Backbone:
């Protein structure tokens, strides 16, 4: 299983041909692509209409979801990652990226992304692994 960030799902929905979207297509075919709730939210909130929202909801809710392992501790660990980044001179653009990284780590899976912030996060969190593209 591979956790796929919204950056790649959105590129796929836009019809972009990138190394990441090609890797995602392979993962979907192999039933190995997973979401986290926050990624699902990011995808859905990009809908331009309620009709599009309903279509996205129907498509994405059939995929496997990886959940935070702890109701509170996961969020505290994501905040800790954000602070460790700032202490190293790295300011993540989105705290959601810290949460996605933490969910990947807790579930022992690699992350497929197309967002430069994850490369910076991995400097502060060596346990963060990436799916090769």
Residues:
């Amino acid at each position: 299983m591979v956790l796929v960030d919204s950056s790649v799902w959105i590129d796929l929905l836009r019809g972009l041909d990138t190394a990441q979207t090609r890797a995602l297509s392979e993962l979907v075919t192999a039933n190995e692509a997973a979401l986290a709730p926050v990624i699902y939210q990011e995808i859905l909130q990009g809908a331009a209409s309620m009709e599009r929202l309903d279509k996205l909801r129907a498509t994405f809710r059939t995929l496997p979801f990886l959940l935070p392992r702890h109701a509170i501790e996961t969020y505290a660990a994501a905040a800790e990652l954000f602070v460790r980044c700032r202490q190293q001179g790295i300011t993540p653009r989105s705290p959601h990226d810290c949460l996605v990284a933490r969910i990947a780590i807790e579930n022992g899976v690699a992350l497929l992304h197309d967002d430069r912030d994850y490369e910076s996060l991995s400097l502060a969190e060596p346990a963060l692994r990436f799916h090769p593209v």
Observations:
- The mean pLDDT is 96.
- The domain at 2-124 is CATH 3.40.50.1010 (Rossmann fold).
